[in-house]
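Issue: copy button drops trailing tokens. Both records pasted manually instead:
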Amino acid sequence: MRYEILGRLQVNDGQRAATIGAQKVETLFAVLLSQPNQIVAASQLMDEIWGERLPGRAAAGIHVYVSQLRKFLSRFTGPDTPVITTAPGYVFDPRDGDIDFQLFERLTRLGKKHAREKRHRQAVSHFESALALWRGPVLSGLTLGSLLSGFAVHLTEFRLECTEALIESYLALGRHRELIGRLYSLIAENPLREAFYRQLMLALYRSDRQADALKAYQSARLVLREELGLEPCRALQDLQRSILSADYHLDRFRQVAG
């Protein structure tokens, strides 16, 4: 069984996927899932659900929402609830289930380990499996308070790191031509992410498109100056100079891997 938050919050037992529907119960569940096997204080749950508009019977409301959550989960777990009451709040114990964001983080770290060891085919396999877990934005459709917003930002950043690492491994395998379209799309979605410009410039250069590689640098420079008043980072500037001088080190993986 898998608890999934990389997209709409749902529980998936391999045969069916079910969502809660009730926003406050869903928020409570999301907070518990974001901190598995840790005590989440009832006050934290109240803050995330109501913020500054705390009702007079908030504590009673939390008890009701926990009861509703347990009833929902019993369809998958039976009477042995994974939501445990422990002062001063509650603990979510996934037991025999997985939480998708934890699996995503494990796969990404394994991919990075393989990449450091120059085992790029294995790294690509782990990175692709990690990214395949995403079905949309973190907890899409749910209004996020401060705690869940920070959690979503962390995971979104980690997703970008995984994507960057995946592309680095593809480049190391000489698969630069197939990356070009993907990198243009990533830059359109993340126009201030300088790493994607660097990877695009390198992929274009190794695909015998030196002029396009230099145009990509100019695009990065224009965006950064207009949005932030900054020049491109040292890595981008160094790469531009290497492309202008046709540095032979850039041709190391010019061949296309089979």
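Record 2 (pasted manually too):
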Amino acid sequence: MTRIVPIGAARDLPFWRRPVTLLFLMAIAMPLSFATWSALLNNFVIEAAQFDGSDIGWLHTVREIPGFLAILVIYLLLFLREQVLALVALSLLGVATAVTAWFPSMGGLLTITLLSSIGFHYYETVNQSLQLQWLRKDRAPQMLGWLLAAASGATLVAYVAIVLTWKAFDLSYNFVYLVSGGLTLAIVAWCAFAFPQFESPHPQIKSFILRRRYWLYYALQFMSGARRQIFVVFAGFMMVERFGFEVHEVTGLYLINLVANMAVAPLLGKVVHRFGERRALLFEYAGLTLIFLCYGGLYWFGWGVLLASVLYVLDHMFFALALALKTYFQKIADPGDIAPTAAVAFTINHIAAVFLPFLLGYLWLNSPGAVFGLAAAMAITSFSLALMIPRHPAPGNETVFARMLPAPAE
């Protein structure tokens, strides 16, 4: 029978069996599959399936459908514990990644992408909930930064291997996908057998909830999903289509991002803890506005590959500040709302992601610069919303208007 251990008693376990260790192992397992899949994707779809901008837009639209349906996690939790669901979702991601190269066609890639995306998005939904339940509020920003650094470190190992061996050993897409997916599955197997089931002190509501007092968090999630989708779909595609990056060059660029995240992410956690979510998010959105405008300049003014590479790295560093959005919600949420609201927030985050990729794919064919101009407008909108975050968020003080208005009914 599976042993159930309350979070409060977990400190008596050996360090290698504690909740935070499980969070770190899962943080390592996920990017081994997902980041490797992403690194090879643009080259693989162009070489194996002759994708153009419209095709890649459709693929990412399909990839985001499970994110839009993340709300179904609430109903899965009626039958599975969050910890178990996280490991099942990771397993699906690992299997789908391992067999990606077996389906080098439009239909095959859309199908396998859908399956891997179900694993990725359902894992991320539950993982965010577990992080906010298991980490203390006073330590959450720093620990989230370290978890991000751990994920970057794991991906760094994979990318270094690709950069050093892709041409030297004439590796195939099939080999790399099989190895990366297999490593994820090996870590999941260890997590399933080595750790007990941890019990949060606050039982989670297992039904759909949508609270008016969380409206600002919902709005920021929506804008974050729309804005980030443009970067995920088109920034990497630009490096291959416009500047002719090969697999090892794209992976080398990702490698720089990982080293930067490993060094910067723990510091960003301290920055959020020191200066608060409001200032951190305002800084992020201001920086992203400038970066997206410069992306547009690569097409409007013909700026070169060096600037594009620098912008790509800076983009990743600014996005790491998104951990402030998690801790903002942790501070304003009722403890029992974390799991259902994580699912609702993931769905809201992916509303725009379902239709933006294929619509902007057609815009990309005519004006790539306009796509990044739209992303800059979204970042400005996010900046305006972040101005409404109070200096010290808390239940009853969710926005700067909370003290001026009567408390809304739930």
